[in-house]
Write a structure and sequence with these properties.
The complex is a heterotrimer of chains A (221), B (240) and C (216).
Chain A lengths: L7 H6 L1 H34 L3 H16 L2 H11 L9 H27 L2 H9 L4 H31 L12 H12 L2 H30 L3
Chain B lengths: L1 E10 L2 E11 L4 E6 L5 H8 L7 E6 L2 E2 L7 H7 E4 L11 H11 L5 H14 L15 H13 L5 E5 L7 H16 L3 E5 L3 H7 L2 E6 L2 E6 L1 H6 L4 H10 L1
Parallel strand pairs in B: 3-8, 3-9, 6-7, 7-8
Antiparallel strand pairs in B: 1-2, 1-4, 4-5, 9-10
Helix pairs in contact in B: 3-4, 3-5, 4-5, 5-6
Chain C lengths: L7 H38 L5 H12 L2 H15 L5 H26 L3 H9 L4 H31 L11 H12 L2 H33 L1
The chains are: A mainly alpha (221), B alpha/beta (240), C mainly alpha (216).
Chain lengths: 221, 240, 216
C-alpha cells in the first residue's frame, strides 16, 4: 500500500523558514483583530445611533461581511480594485479581507453582548449623574468585554487560520505561502503541509491558553 | 422641595400615571404604598428623569426636570436613587463602586473620593468589605452598598424604589435600619415600599397610590391607622 | 447600458458553480450533523470518557481548512485511493462540520436544566426515553441558531476547494474573469449569488425558529 517514501528530513530543514512564516501569520492575524475590533466598535455605535445613513452603512457592511466568503472578499479586493487602477499587494488584500470579516462578525457579537449587559446598569450609572459617554466607558464596556471575550478569542483563532488563504492570491511569506513554496520546489506535499498543520495547531492552542490566562487576570470578579 | 404637578405618563396605550400631584418639602419623609402596577415605581423614575412624562411637570428646587434645556446629569447629582435590584457594578470592588461617581462626575481627587467612600461605607456598616467584589456579598450588603453609593454624591433627596422587596426576609432588617438612620439624620426621602410598619414608623406623610392616582394622603396615623377611603383599608388588610 | 462581454452562458456557468457549492454544503452538513449529533451526545453524557474524542475533533478546528484539503488530497494519493477531489472535499468538510456540530449539540444538551430531566425520570421514563423525548427536542431548539450559523459558514468555506481543483462558484467566476478581464463585474455577480444563497438559508432558519417559538 505505501510505496511512498516519506522524506521528513527535507521537511524539517525547512522549519526555520516555516517558523518565520508562522510569525508573519500571527502578526497579520493580530493586526486584523486590532483593526477589526476598532471598526466593529464604530459599527456598533453607528448602528445604535440615530443617523439613518450611518445605520444603513453599518448594517450593509455587516451584512456583506457575514454573507459572503472571506476568500471572495480577498479576491474582490485583490482583483477588483484593479479596475479602479488601485493595485494592492496580496498581503494587503488578505489583511483587508480578514479585517472586514472580523469587523462584521465582531459587530454582531458586540451587539449581542450589549444586550446582555442589563440596562439597569446603565440606569444606575446615569442616576449617579454620569453622562452617557461616561456611563458607557466606565460601566457598560468593561462588562461587555467580559461577555464577548470568548467570541473574541475564537475570532482571533479564526483569523490565524484564515491567513492561509493568502497563498491563493499569491502571498508567499506567511506560513502557508512558505509551505507552498517548498512544496512546489520539492513536491513533498504531505510532509511539508503536515508540519504546517502542526504549527497552525500549536499557534491556535497557544492563543487559547494565553486568552485564558488573560481573562483570569482581567476578570477576577 | 420636589413639586410634582398633575403628571400623566403612559407606556404606549396604557396610562400608568393619571394626574398625580404631590409636594415633598425639605427634610420630609414621604412613603408611597399601593398595589403593584399602581404606578409608584414609575413615578420615582420620572422624578430623576429616567422615564419621560406625557404631561404635567416635576420641579426639583425650582428646576423643571423634563424641560429641554435642563442639564439632567447635574440635576441627578442632587437626587440619589436606590433600586429594588441594587444594580451593583459587578466589575468594581465595593470601594470602587462608591468612589466612581464622585471621581468622574464631581471631579474629586482619588484621595478625596476614597475618604468619602470609606466614610459612607462605614456609616452603612460595610467598613470591612471595601476591597470585596459585590458578587461575593449578600443581597442586603449589596443594597447597603447601593445606598452608600448614592449618598457619596451628597444628594439633597433620596428616592427608594422598593429597596427591600428583593431581599430575603432576614436581610430586610439591616437595610431598613440604614434607611431609618438616614431619616433620623434629616434626609429628604421618598420611599416606595411594602413595609407598612416601617412606613408608619419613619414617615412624616404616607400616600396610598391606586390606579395611577394618589388615592389618599396624610400622616401615618391617618392613612395607616385610620384610613378614610375603603380601598385604602382593603389594601392594608390584604397585605397583613 | 454599459458594454460587457459577460454573456448569459457565463451566468449559467456561474450558476453551475453555485450548484457545486450547494451540493458540497449539503453533503458535508448531512455527514457532519449525523456524526456531530452522535459525538455531541457522547460528549455531553459521558464528559470524561469522551475527552480523547474532544481532542481529536479539536484538531479539525485548529488547522486551516485549506491545509486540511491539501493534506487529505496528498494522503489519498499516497495511500492509493482513487477518489475525486469532490469526495475529498466532502470528507474533509464532513469532519470539519462534525467537529463544530459536536460542540453545538453538546452545549444544547447541557442547556436542558437538570430539574426537567429529574421530573421526567420521576414520571417513570427510562434514561433513553428521557433523552429522546425531553432532552433532544429542547436541545434542538437551543442548538438550532448555532447550527444554521454553521451551515452558512460551511457554504462560504466551500470557496476554498477551488485550490484542489473543484470548480465551484468562486473558481467559476475566476475562469470567466480570465477570459473577459472584467473582474469587478463578474465578482460582484458571484458575490450577489453568494449573498442571495446565504440570505435565503438565514431567512428559512429564522422562519423555522419563529414557528417553534410560537408553539412552545
Amino acid at each position: 500500500m505505501f510505496d511512498y517514501n516519506f522524506h521528513w528530513r527535507a521537511a524539517f530543514k525547512a522549519l526555520p523558514d516555516m517558523l518565520d512564516g508562522a510569525w508573519v501569520t500571527f502578526e497579520t492575524a493580530a493586526l486584523s483583530m486590532i483593526l477589526g475590533v476598532a471598526i466593529a466598535l464604530c459599527l456598533t455605535f453607528m448602528r445604535m445611533g440615530k443617523q439613518p445613513l450611518l445605520r444603513g452603512f453599518a448594517a450593509t457592511w455587516i451584512s456583506i461581511a457575514r454573507n459572503t466568503p472571506s476568500l471572495f472578499q480577498v479576491y474582490i479586493l485583490y482583483f477588483g480594485l484593479g479596475s479602479f487602477g488601485l493595485h494592492i499587494s496580496s498581503w494587503a488584500a488578505l489583511l483587508a479581507g480578514i479585517t472586514i470579516n472580523n469587523a462584521g462578525y465582531l459587530a454582531e457579537n458586540f451587539r449581542g453582548g450589549l444586550k446582555a449587559v442589563p440596562d439597569t446598569q446603565l440606569r444606575a450609572a446615569r442616576s449617579l449623574g454620569m453622562s452617557a459617554p461616561q456611563a458607557y466607558r466606565l460601566i457598560v464596556i468593561p462588562q461587555l468585554l467580559r461577555i464577548v471575550f470568548y467570541p473574541l478569542t475564537n475570532q482571533m483563532v479564526w483569523a490565524v487560520l484564515m491567513t492561509s488563504m493568502g497563498v491563493i492570491v499569491g502571498l508567499n511569506n506567511d506560513l502557508t505561502g512558505v509551505t507552498q513554496d517548498w512544496n512546489v520546489k520539492t513536491f513533498r506535499t504531505f510532509e511539508f503541509f503536515a508540519i504546517a498543520a502542526v504549527l497552525y495547531y500549536l499557534i491556535a492552542k497557544a492563543i487559547v491558553v494565553l486568552a485564558r490566562l488573560l481573562s483570569w487576570r482581567l476578570f477576577r470578579y | 422641595m420636589i413639586e410634582i404637578d398633575n403628571v400623566h405618563k403612559s407606556f404606549g396605550e396604557l396610562e400608568v400615571i393619571k394626574g398625580v400631584s404631590l409636594s415633598v418639602n425639605k427634610g420630609e419623609v414621604v412613603s408611597i404604598i399601593g398595589g403593584s402596577g399602581s404606578g409608584k415605581s414609575t413615578l420615582l423614575m420620572c422624578i430623576n428623569g429616567l422615564e419621560s412624562i406625557k404631561s404635567g411637570s416635576i420641579r426639583v428646587d425650582g428646576t423643571e426636570v423634563h424641560a429641554k434645556g435642563t442639564d439632567i446629569n447635574k440635576l441627578r447629582q442632587k437626587i440619589g436613587i436606590v433600586f429594588q435590584q441594587w444594580n451593583a457594578f459587578p466589575h468594581l470592588t465595593v470601594l470602587e463602586n462608591v468612589m466612581l461617581a464622585p471621581r468622574t462626575v464631581l471631579g474629586k481627587s482619588k484621595a478625596e473620593a476614597e475618604a468619602l467612600a470609606v466614610k459612607q461605607l462605614t456609616h452603612v456598616g460595610l467598613g470591612d468589605k471595601l476591597k470585596v467584589f459585590p458578587g461575593k456579598l449578600s443581597g442586603g450588603q449589596q443594597q447597603r452598598m447601593a445606598i452608600a453609593r448614592a449618598l457619596a454624591m451628597s444628594p439633597d433627596y433620596m428616592l427608594f424604589d422598593e429597596a427591600t422587596s428583593a431581599l430575603d426576609p432576614q436581610l430586610v432588617g439591616e437595610v431598613l435600619d440604614t434607611m431609618r438612620m438616614l431619616a433620623e439624620d434629616g434626609m429628604t426621602m421618598i420611599l416606595v415600599t411594602h413595609e407598612i410598619r416601617f412606613a408608619r414608623d419613619v414617615s412624616d406623610r404616607v400616600a396610598f397610590f391606586r390606579n395611577g392616582l394618589v388615592h389618599e394622603i396624610g400622616t401615618p396615623d391617618q392613612v395607616i391607622g385610620n384610613p378614610q377611603r375603603p380601598e385604602t383599608a382593603e389594601f392594608l388588610k390584604s397585605i397583613n | 447600458m454599459f458594454n460587457t462581454s459577460f454573456t448569459w452562458n457565463d451566468l449559467l456557468f456561474l450558476l453551475d458553480g453555485a450548484k457545486v457549492t450547494i451540493l458540497l454544503t449539503l453533503v458535508s452538513m448531512l455527514i457532519g450533523t449525523l456524526a456531530g449529533v452522535a459525538c455531541g451526545l457522547f460528549r455531553a453524557l459521558l464528559p470524561r470518557a469522551s475527552i480523547p474524542l474532544a481532542w481529536l475533533l479539536d484538531v479539525f478546528r485548529s488547522v486551516p481548512l485549506l491545509i486540511q484539503f491539501v493534506l487529505f488530497n496528498a494522503l489519498k494519493s499516497i495511500v492509493g485511493l482513487n477518489w475525486s477531489a469532490f469526495s475529498v472535499a466532502c470528507v474533509v468538510l464532513g469532519l470539519y462540520v462534525t467537529a463544530y456540530c459536536t460542540e453545538i449539540v453538546r452545549s444544547g444538551v447541557l442547556s436542558v436544566p437538570m430539574s426537567l430531566r429529574r421530573a421526567s425520570r420521576s414520571l417513570g421514563l427510562s434514561y433513553w426515553q428521557d433523552i429522546r423525548r425531553i432532552v433532544m427536542p429542547m436541545a434542538t431548539r437551543v442548538a438550532f441558531p448555532g447550527w444554521v450559523n454553521l451551515l452558512l459558514s460551511v457554504m462560504k468555506d466551500t470557496a476554498l476547494v477551488m485550490w484542489i481543483g473543484i470548480v465551484e462558484l468562486l473558481r467559476a467566476s475566476q475562469t470567466i474573469v480570465t477570459r473577459i478581464q472584467e473582474p469587478l463585474l463578474v465578482l460582484c455577480i458571484a458575490g450577489a449569488i453568494y449573498y442571495v444563497m446565504s440570505l435565503v438559508v438565514a431567512r428559512l432558519g429564522a422562519r423555522l425558529e419563529a414557528r417553534w417559538q410560537e408553539n412552545d
